[in-house]
Amino acid sequence: MKEAKIKIIWPNNHETFVSEGDDWFSSAEKAGLEIPTGCLTGSCGACEIDVNGETVRACISDIKSKEKCILKVVLTTDPFWEN
Ligand code: FES
Questions:
Q1: C-beta 40 within 6 A of ligand 1
Q2: Which CATH number describes the domain made up of 6-77?
């Protein structure tokens, strides 16, 4: 069993613990957030989030933590996808 040792601080100030390799969408859902989606193939950018200052496309990325065990996530917004 994987150990949940990566702490994520979400934009709604909820904090959750996840494991390396967990997916961003279900992890966000556990924190009460929904990451926007579009193509789900990595090409549109609708699911982009900012993780410790680095842009990540959630649909093609698993949660990774290098040396830091705290990831601060910001949902990015794209005017193209807003109405
Ligand atoms: S949903 Fe389009 S890049 Fe992730």
A1: yes
A2: 3.10.20.30
Q: How does pLDDT run across 10-55, given as a tens digit for each residue?
A: 999 999 999 999 999 999 999 999 999 999 999 999 999 999 889 9
CA–CA separation, 17 and 43 (whole Å): 28
Q: What's the CA-to-centroid distance between 56 and ligand 1, angstroms?
A: 10
Q: Where are the domains of the chain?
A: 6-77
| Angle CA 21–27–32, to nearest 5 | 175
C-alpha 36 – ligand 1 centre gap (Å): 8
How far is the centre of ligand 1, averaged over its atoms, from the C-alpha of 60 (Å)?
8
CB of 43 shorter than 6 A to ligand 1: yes
Which residue type does 13 have? N
- Could you give the C-alpha distances from 30 to 12, 33, 43, 49, in angstroms and in order? 12, 7, 25, 16
